[in-house]
Amino acid sequence: MNNYLIPANSKKSMLILGLFTVTDLIIFGVGITISLLCMMIFELSSLLSIILVLSPGVIASFLVFPIPNYHNALTFLMSMFNFYTNRQRFVWKGWCFSYGESEKQVYKR
Questions:
Q1: Rounded Cα–Cα distance for residues 99 and 105 (Å)
Q2: Which residues of 38-51 are buried (b: 16+ CB within 10 A; e: fewer)?
Q3: For residue 96, what are the CA distances in angstroms to 53, 92, 99, 100?
Q4: Which tens digit of pLDDT belongs to each residue from 76-102?
Q5: Three-class DSSP category at 42
Q6: What is the number of H-type helices and E-type strands within the chain?
């Protein structure tokens, strides 16, 4: 009857190398390119200049680094930002025998 069980990791096959989306590769490529261009343009004579030149590539690498339970660090940071900035509405029903509209309590964060 066409009842198929889809494995949990089936979406992984849609990713590039099983880890990255096109957006991830664009972010990583732009960060590395900016770092390489800055290495060619600026004189790397001090530790501060080396840190500043390498920071775009390091930040881009951190954003696309895969972490457990999320696609990558960028997805985690976006989820955390949305959780703390968007107004959320939690409907509490509790463990009651019957649910009526007058019994429903709404808590806003």
A1: 11
A2: beeeeeeeeeeeee
A3: 60, 11, 7, 10
A4: 888 888 888 887 776 666 665 555 555
A5: coil
A6: 3, 2
| DSSP state at residue 65 | -
Encoding tokens for residue 95?
Answer: 């463990």
Angstrom distance (rounded) from CA 61 to CA 76: 14
CA 60 remoteness from chain centre: 12
Q: C-alpha angle with apex 106: 92 to 89, nearest 5 degrees?
A: 95
CA-based nearest residue to 85, from 56, 102, 61, 109 = 109
The mean of the pLDDT values for the chain is 77
The residue type at 34: I
Residue with token string 């900016």: 34
Residue listed under structure tokens 């960060």? 31
Cα 19 to Cα 64: distance, rounded to the nearest angstrom? 9
